[in-house]
Amino acid sequence: MARPFHVGVTASHRFLDPSMHGLDFLRELIGHWVSGLDITRLGSLAACVGAAPAAWRFLRTAWHETYGWVRQFFISSVTIPGHDPLNRHVTNWVVTNVIQFRSIRSFTARTQVQAGAATDRAALLKKTRRDIQYLPHFESTWFWHEGNLFLIRRPLDGFKASMANSAYDGVGGEELTIGCLGRSTEPIKRLIQTCQEYADKQAQYFVLIYSRYRMSWQPKSRKPIRRLETVHFDDKLKQELLADIRKYLDPNTKRLYNLRSMPYRRGYLFYGPPGTGKSSLSTALAGEFGLDLYEVKIPSVATDQDLEQMFQEVPPQCIVLLEDIDAIWTKRESTNHERHGEAITNCTLSGLLNVLDGVGSPEGRIVIMTTNKLSRLDSALVRPGRVDMKILLGNISRKSAEQMFLRMFAPDVDYLALPSSKKDTVKIGESQHVQMDHERLLRLASEFSTQIPEDTFTPSQLQGFFQLHLDNPTEAALSISAWVERQLSGLSSDDEIEIVGNGHAR
Q: Distance between CA 482 and CA 497 in Å, rounded?
């Protein structure tokens, strides 16, 4: 009789057999695996795992001790405080020239907030998707520069604190420590000089505007340089203003001031109706002369002490813009005007005069004050020495309206600066396939300006009109007459809307 044929079934075969997938099989498999372990080896493995944290603490402590010893004897360093302009220059250079070429795996993501959006309630209510801003993390980074090894440390605690400010753009908000292998700080100074030169090249096309936030000056926005041709007022007065500022910024002028023991300061007053370009002119001047703009809104300053602190922290060569200077009143006047809902401030006239030319007031800066109500300013505030030149920015003239028309319909090139031989080649209104030569554009500009009454409309009102006809100069020239009639008759609210919509052009 033949003996039955048996096939040996191992644990691996039974694992593949669906009929064996049960608890009994799992217990058998685990028991078989445990029975094969050496208890001595298992104990050794557990001991190693238990000792790992202690070994890691020891290695970490040894590393910090070794690094501290090396840093003390072999590394020189320079520390730059947070929110200092130099801090921003160095961080920008490192992010651009070092960080972006490495594999960064840690970012902070947040919604991109446009300038002014925080105060624009209508913008916050819009159901539109906003851009996302990714800010790279780096607590420390090593790099070589000009044959020297550098280490830059940036504590992330300061980075997280800066993120609470909606105006913070991820650059220059935390303390930086620059270390260099060696006992001399000269390589670090050369690196900082390189960062400053890089910042100067980047800033030649932009104006950096600073505002006060949590008791310190911080960058509010970076705007493209605005040409002075875009601010329309008397050409002769404009040239006189440029010549005066240019002379003041001349190093020889500063030397003469010092030799004659004169305070090296310069003050200007821009006055006129709202919407005539007072703030725009200040921004254009900052771009023209390569200066930063420090913005002070007088109604938002709480006390004289706050105003003094703000001026003490302003760098020597910049433009300080004091907006709505007429908000400073005496106590008696404040009581009267509060009832009318007008903006006032707790700052006093004496406090303002003290920061402008008091004994301890800083020198070297340009102060520009703006007001819509010249008659309300105290004579002590506008005397020579505090206000060296008064600039009236009034309603637009026909000549300025013609210049604005030419500028509006040649947006992609510096049309007014082109030679006559090349102006004929410029295409106007290409989006509507309308090609216009230079002569026809001049005729339209002339026809347009004849419809504008002298000294009646502000530049911001006229700019609001152009926004409706940016693609078609012919349509703009044909529509201006009806627009002027509506404005003069007072039957339309366009005037009010345009002033609000262009409130930046004060």
A: 17
3-state secondary structure of 398: helix
Asked whether the CA dihedral 397, 398, 401, 402 is positive or negative, the reply is negative
SS (H, E, C) 357-379: HCCCCCCCCEEEEEECCHHHCCC
Alpha-carbon separation of residue 456 from 299, 375, 478, 489, 498 (angstroms): 29, 20, 20, 13, 15
CB contact burial 27-39 (16+ within 10 A = b; e otherwise): eeeeeeeeeeeee
- Rounded distance between C-alpha atoms, residue 181 and residue 298, angstroms: 48
| Predicted pLDDT of residue 423 | 47
Beta carbons within 10 angstroms of residue 251's beta carbon: 7
Distance, CA of 392 to CA of 254 (rounded, Å): 27
φ, ψ of residue 437 in degrees (nearest 5):
-85, 175
Say how many Å lie between the first and final Cα of the chain, rounded: 115
Residue 263 CB contacts under 8 Å (≥ 6 apart), including other chains: 257, 357, 361, 363
Q: Is the pTM value of this prediction over 0.70?
A: no
Residue extents of the structural domains in the chain: 70-116+128-203, 223-392, 398-501
Taking each helix axis from N to C end, the angle separating 235-249 and 278-288, rounded to the nearest 10 degrees, works out to: 40
Q: What is the DSSP letter of 186?
A: H
Q: Give bridge partners of residue 181 from the DSSP assignment.
A: 75
d(CA 332, CA 348): 12
- At 284 the pLDDT is 92
Dump the DSSP string for 330-350. Answer: -HHHHHHHHTTT----S--HH
Q: Coil, strand, or helix at residue 145?
A: strand
Measured CA distances, 180 to 12, 77, 172, 196, 267 (Å): 61, 6, 20, 18, 44
Element (H, E) at 320: strand 319-323
Contact 351, 309 (CB under 8 A): no
What DSSP state is assigned to residue 19? G
Q: Where are the alpha helices (DSSP H) in 387-493?
A: 398-408, 420-423, 438-450, 459-466, 473-489
Q: Is 382 exposed, middle or buried (CB count within 10 Å of its CB: 0-12, 13-18, 19+)?
A: middle
Query: What would the pLDDT profile of 446-489 be if each residue is shown by its tens digit?
Result: 999 999 998 889 888 898 898 888 888 888 899 999 999 888 88
Structure tokens at 86: 């130099």
Check whether domain 223-392 has CATH 3.10.20.70, yes or no: no
What is the separation of C-alpha 400 from the centre of its chain, rounded to a whole number of angstroms?
Answer: 31
The token duo for 499 is 């002033």
Euclidean distance between CA atoms 85 and 229, whole angstroms:
30
414-448 tens-digit pLDDT: 444 444 554 444 444 443 434 457 788 889 999 99
Sheet holding 319-323, edge to edge: 216-224, 206-213, 293-297, 319-323, 366-371, 266-271, 389-392
Which H helix or E strand runs over 354?
helix 349-357
